[in-house]
Design a protein that fits this description.
It is a single chain. By secondary structure, the chain is an alpha+beta fold. The protein has one domain (4-188). The protein is built from four helices and seven strands; from the N terminus they run αααββαβββββ. It is globular.
């Protein structure tokens, strides 16, 4: 499928887009951004836990990928680190950076997510909060959303199989009609 050179170029592009800007404050800034959005704000009061990814970099040209690092919280307390990786195949070109939050509704959803390796099912969906429209579906994941802007966002989204996912586009431009899925890895906080 992918030759080594193509995979290397793709990985470099994803890492470039996902850059590591001011990590100390990026988590709290991202949480604050989602708390101030009408679309995701109420989930902080009802969720069991959540995973926040300040920057996920995505790039593609027929074959695409995305990667980002995040933190996992249980009842608002930091409990470990997470990473997300996405591979996609289909009509796509460009690059984009976005923030993502995954709300975990209950203990079962939290345990599933933090079991080490977690993958979205085909029926997962995400709500896009900022001025962007996107849609994709695949064997391991699906997402769709559109809105006018983060200040104009209205309450939207709901839990599905214990998860609620929201994204905020940070920059870039990407055209896509792809098959993709997101995989997560969790590492507990070292004591």
């Amino acid at each position: 499928m992918l030759n080594t050179r193509t995979a290397g170029i793709l990985l470099a592009a994803v890492q470039l887009f996902s850059g590591r800007s001011a990590l100390a404050d990026s988590y709290s800034d991202t949480v604050t951004l989602f708390k101030n959005s009408g679309a995701s704000a109420s989930f902080f009061n009802t969720c069991y836990g959540y995973a926040v990814f300040p920057t996920i970099g995505k790039a593609g040209l027929v074959v695409g990928g995305a990667h980002g690092k995040g933190r996992v919280y249980l009842h608002g307390k930091y409990v470990g680190d997470a990473s997300v990786t996405q591979l996609s195949v289909g009509l796509q070109a460009g690059g984009q950076a976005y923030s993502q939050i995954v709300f975990l509704e209950d203990e079962r959803a939290f345990k599933d997510f933090t079991s080490g390796h977690f993958e979205f099912g085909a029926d997962a969906s995400a709500v896009a909060i900022t001025a962007a429209a996107q849609a994709s579906a695949g064997t391991a994941g699906a997402s769709a959303g559109a809105s006018g802007g983060k200040k104009d966002a209205v309450t939207a989204g709901s839990y599905h199989n214990g998860l609620a996912v929201f994204t905020i586009v940070k920059g870039g431009a990407m055209y896509q009609a792809t098959v993709a899925g997101q995989k997560f890895e969790f590492t507990p906080q070292s004591q």
